Amino acid sequence: MSEHICDPKAGITRRQFLYYSGASLVALALPAFLHDVAHAEDLRLQMATYPRVQVGKLSALKIGQPIEFQYPFDHPNCTNYIYKLGVPAGGGIGPEQDVVAFNNLCAHQGGPLTGKFNAKHQVLGPCPLHLTTFDLTRHGMVVSGHATEGLPQIVLELDGDDIYATGVMGLVFGFNNNLAKPTA
Ligand code: FES
Fold first, then answer.
1. What is the pLDDT of residues 76-85, one digit of tens each?
2. Per-residue pLDDT, 40
3. Which helix or strand (DSSP H or E) is residue 158 part of?
4. Which pTM does this prediction carry?
5. Interval between CA 83 and ligand 1 midpoint (Å)
6. Where are the alpha helices (DSSP H) in the chain?
7. Quick check: 16 and 23 in contact, CB under 8 A?
8. pLDDT of 175
9. Residue ID of nearest Cα to ligand 1 atom 3
């Protein structure tokens, strides 16, 4: 008699036990696995929706002379500057890893940071409203002041001499979603 036929006296065979145990584990783990796959796919799609836009030339950059650009939308809150710092920085590109870009509105209450770049100390600020200063070598983290969030950093890529913006790390002031096109 085959071991696959149940013998009420013998219970289930070892092979049947292993088979049913394995099937139970798969049934339990599969929903969680599929959820993880779907979540990873969502994240990948969100990342992919940032446009890749040329925003400057490496050869045009000079220390202490930031270059303005708009990203990811042509909107006042999406004004950013590329900085050549002269020292390596988090997220920096170029041969010296010293070229970075940041949004220009203070992460506290949106104070404009235009003209507040201190090239000697590689910081941006103090903000004209409540004096927050941001460290551009450390992903825009707060050095001092009222802001509790760092300055949004624009993700840059270099292709030859061309600088491309490919994403934003941190929420742009006044937005609840960096990728939702502003209506006003
Ligand atoms: S708006 Fe910049 S510190 Fe308050």
1. 999 999 999 9
2. 63
3. strand 153-159
4. 0.75
5. 21
6. 14-48
7. no
8. 95
9. 130
